[in-house]
Amino acid sequence: MNAITLRHLRYFEALAQHGHFGRAAEACAVSQPTLSVQIKELEAILGAALVERGARRVRLTDLGEALAARARDILQRADDLGDLARASCGPLTGPLRLGVIPTVAPYLLPAVIKTLAARRPGLDLRPREAVTRTLLDELAAARLDAAIVALPVASPGLSATPLLTEAFLLVRPVADADRPVPSAAALRAMRLLLLEEGHCFRDQAIAFCAAGGAPREMMEGSSLSTLVQMVGAGVGVTLIPEMAAPVEARAAPVAVARLAPPQPTRVIGMVWRRTTPLAEQLRQIADIVREAASARA
Amino acid sequence: MNAITLRHLRYFEALAQHGHFGRAAEACAVSQPTLSVQIKELEAILGAALVERGARRVRLTDLGEALAARARDILQRADDLGDLARASCGPLTGPLRLGVIPTVAPYLLPAVIKTLAARRPGLDLRPREAVTRTLLDELAAARLDAAIVALPVASPGLSATPLLTEAFLLVRPVADADRPVPSAAALRAMRLLLLEEGHCFRDQAIAFCAAGGAPREMMEGSSLSTLVQMVGAGVGVTLIPEMAAPVEARAAPVAVARLAPPQPTRVIGMVWRRTTPLAEQLRQIADIVREAASARA
DNA sequence: TGGCGTTCATAGGCTCAGGCTATCGTGACG
DNA sequence: CGTCACGATAGCCTGAGCCTATGAACGCCA
User: Fold this and answer.
1) Looking at residue A217, what is its pLDDT?
2) What's the pLDDT score for residue B70?
3) Exposed/middle/buried for B226, CB within 10 Å: 0-12, 13-18, 19+?
4) Are A118 and A238 within 8 A, CB to CB?
5) CB–CB of B82 and A46 under 8 A?
6) Is the CB of residue A62 less than 8 Å away from at least one CB of chain B?
7) Do B77 and A81 touch (CB under 8 A)?
8) Please, which pLDDT band fits residue B16 given cuts at 50, 70 and 90?
9) Were both Cys, which of A62, A221, A283, B138 would link to B143 (CB 3.0–4.6 Å)?
């Protein structure tokens, strides 16, 4: 019998993921018999069963599970070879899949796109917006090249570099503009509007306000823009990151105030798979993003 | 263009190693045009040159060097998948390529072979004898599954487990049998017969005798057997490991004496690639070897 | 219990990737 | 300047791998 090929591993990895020959075949863009035969051949090469063909469902054997893990690793490394070649051709060109969290994307991306277009003409930026958890998962699966999120990220396989640090600002109805800026403790007594679950900015805001106190009655919105509009309508107050202020505060009858020290802040950074061959290129991209961010201010 | 295959990587790795299309092709058991075409295709897929076709010799580009390193890694991992399957089938079966240093092999292997044959009927032991440096290189290149050498080994990619500790014994002409056992310092005044360069036992013997003193006039032999025969001929004295004594001392008119404490000793152990899927099986093999060694005593 | 649907395996046929031999182009070297 | 060494190219051939069609096994439900 012949040797193992990457094709075997790709098909098997798909089967491991879907637990179903037909769907795995579809994911690989081949017919079910094609995938079936290749899996069978892989089992013949290894001399052991990888899957238990149950009537309604396919389950991996222990060996199958072990193999799936290693197969993923090998496929990942093989796919990285393409990036290795790209990285060796001077400044980065071609598609760059960049994830950005929603509380950063609308405020930072325009400047980033503009600056990158000027500084990296051959680059084809493909931004994607999602919450941190999603972005990190996509990164790990190599469906993204890099992501811009709030640091720190506690993920073993990733490298990160900070891009900027920004304060959280208080947004309240314009009628309150002349009142003294409330302390964190005082904030706790007000109706605070927050983003939905999953947004890191929500957690950071809660951490600041609720430090030492129980979480209070709040309301949720799906974007900073929504929150500010609701504040303008007198529903309550909210916090927004500094970079959102120029855009959002202009669009509603609200007043923006800097909080008293110690001001809450967040660090925005760029992360990528530690093992990507594009690391050096991404560091350069991070430099350009940093530049774009400070020029924008 | 199509995707990268393991075949591409195998051919390229061979080319990187040989720096010559013809010889690389030969190593891969294909014709030179076949390999040429595949290399060209790999370059097309990556969109960059991997080799500079010089007139008399082929040199890798920087990218080529980087790729070769990664290719080796990927091929290694792919080859490990076979072992992964073997390891999942209960007790180890099939070929086991075991390297052994020359100062251990003749004394330990007979017992090991006998015991392994009884305890692991399906196992096909393929012993190979070479000095430590060679064995470790072969291990790293995965041309050996495990090796029995003197510990410690300072090699990052390897795991080790001790098998036994044994003393060094003094071998001198039978006429000297009644003399007091010389100290390490006194040994320095005698003509000491040693193995050739490369044998770890030589270095250990020197380390013991020459501790604190300059190395002295010595003579070299290519095996412990030779050394003992020379001692029997009255040429000088030598040290041998304990396990060699029963065999070697019987074959010449020599007397074997235990040195005064602190006796020099060496630790014999088994090593393997840290990442081999056979690790657990090899640990069991080590247990059996340990058993064989102590039963033999 | 028998018909039906779902799912994986098998069969048969086709196409092109990848192999070989033969030959060419080029630079080094005597 | 002829020759040699070496890699590239051309042309052909075989089989790996794909597809469609169909079989076989099993669960489900009437």
Assistant:
1) 56
2) 95
3) middle
4) no
5) yes
6) yes
7) no
8) very high
9) B138
- Alpha-carbon gap, residue B257 to B239, rounded angstroms: 10
Global pTM value: 0.79
B92-153+271-296 maps to CATH 3.20.20.70 = no
Instruction: Report the distance separating Cα B38 and Cα B36, nearest Å.
Output: 6
- In tens, the pLDDT along B269-293 reads 999 999 899 998 999 999 999 998 8
Rounded, the Å distance between the CA of B122 and C1' of D1 is 66
Tokens of B40: 């060209």
Q: Do B70 and A81 touch (CB under 8 A)?
A: yes
Q: CA A37, C1' D30: Å apart?
A: 36
Distance between CA B228 and CA B245 in Å, rounded? 10
CA atoms within 13 A on the CB side of A34: 12
Strand C and chain A: which residues 36-65 have CB closer than 7 Å? 36-37, 39-40, 53, 56-58
> Among A160-164, A200-204, B8-12, B221-225, which stretch is predicted with the lowest mean pLDDT?
B221-225
Write the pLDDT tens digit of every residue in A83-124: 999 888 778 888 999 999 988 888 888 889 989 999 999 899
Say whether the CB atom of B2 is under 7 angstroms from strand C. yes
Question: Where in chain B are all domains bearing CATH 3.40.190.10?
Answer: 92-153+271-296, 165-265
pLDDT at res. B13: 94
Q: What are phi and psi of A133, to 5 degrees?
A: -50, -50
Task: Find the closest chain B residue to A78 by CA distance.
Answer: B74
The alpha carbon dihedral of A163, A166, A172, A178 has a sign of negative
Residue B199 and residue B102 in contact, taking contact as beta carbons nearer than 8 Å? yes
CA atoms within a 13 Å half-sphere pointing along the CA-CB vector of B221: 20
Q: Which fold has domain B6-86?
A: Arc Repressor Mutant, subunit A (1.10.10)
A165-265 placed in CATH 3.40.190.10 = yes
- Interface membership of A82 toward B (CB under 8 Å): yes
Q: Give CATH 1.10.10.10 domain extents, chain B.
A: 6-86
Other beta carbons less than 10 A from residue B2's beta carbon: 8
d(CA B60, CA B40): 13
A8 vs A44: CA distance, rounded Å: 12
User: Which chain B residue has the Cα nearest residue A83?
Assistant: B46
Report residue B184's pLDDT band, with 50, 70 and 90 as the boundaries.
low
Question: Look-up: residue for tokens 């491991």?
Answer: A16
Residue of B74, B75, B79, B83 to mutate for A, most A C-beta atoms under 10 A: B74
Q: Do the Cβ atoms of A63 and B80 come within 8 Å?
A: no
Please give residues of chain B from 38 to 97 whose alpha-adjacent beta carbon (CB) lies under 7 Å from any atom of strand C.
Answer: 38, 41, 55-56
Residue from A11, A74, A86 whose CB has the most chain B CBs within 10 Å, to mutate: A74
